[in-house]
Amino acid sequence: MKVKAHIPNMFTFFNLTLGILAIVSIINESYTVSALLILVAAFTDRLDGQLARKLDVESELGKELDSLCDLISFGVAPAVLIWSFHLAKFGVIGILIMVIFAISGAYRLARYNIMEFEGVYMGIPITMCGGILALITLYSINYQTNVHFIGMMTLFLSYSMISKKIKLKKR
Length: 171
Known about the structure:
By secondary structure, the protein is mainly alpha-helical. About 75% of the residues lie in helices and about 5% in strands. The protein is built from six helices and two strands, in the order H-H-H-H-E-H-H-E. The chain has a two-stranded antiparallel ribbon with strand order 1-2. It is globular and about 50 Å long.
């Protein structure tokens, strides 16, 4: 196999690495670093797909690998970040909100992988929803925010990922 076939997957693995480092940063209570790592992962996630198309090396393996890595970087890491920084105060309800976000992201990715495209995606991409949670965290580090609003926003983003009513056109 040619080297160029592996280039997009290297960006996908970098995305995963950033997601894992974001989780490690949460453990160390470095919330700003974690949020920034999630946002950089979003940038790399954008690049892997573009490179695969540009190099004409798209594959089913790459698609599945991308989804698995996205679940960590934009489902699990942002859910744990928002829980650790804000929602832990709600006890079991906070844990439930965190889990709902991660499950919604997993469902969205699985549905995406089996969809037949007709120029329209259903639901907001997990990358965008995870990025929004990272941005909310960055904002709330510097400005006082309503924790109830953040909980509701996390639930809204969870719904947005799996909603069939929200449709985005394919670029």
